Amino acid sequence: xxxxxxxxxxxxxxxxxxxxxxxMSGAFLFGAAALLMVGFVLLMRLSLFGLxxxxxxxxxxxxxxxxxxxxxxxxSAVATLAGxxxxxxxxxxxxxARGKPIPSLGPRARAIAATLIVTVLMAITLxxxxxxxxxxxx
Length: 138
Prior knowledge:
- With 138 residues, this protein is an all-alpha fold.
- The protein is 81% helix and 0% strand.
- It has helices at residues 2-20, 24-44, 48-68, 72-98, 107-130.
């Protein structure tokens, strides 16, 4: 749920910035942000439709970014957020498809897995930051 809200806020901010610059990509991201916010509210009410709405919105955003995105300098950030959102929802979707809960890791294994995930995400961010090219944001 928190990831959906964070993605919605990021998409809204970037969407508003792009739209004021005249890009229709901004309107698309702003619409995706609105859908993610509605999905967040529905998830707070424990609605399955909220999960479907969030996953569907992230899948469409990822598909559009990978196929027809005009803002190349933001493509990696938007695609990463949408992809991570899909990966975070995968265990829940798997559990729904199987009709039974997925087995849980023990507390120590969960702590190690969480540490590894955060470390990998930080390493990816660092590599992307180090490999960036200085470009004007206009």
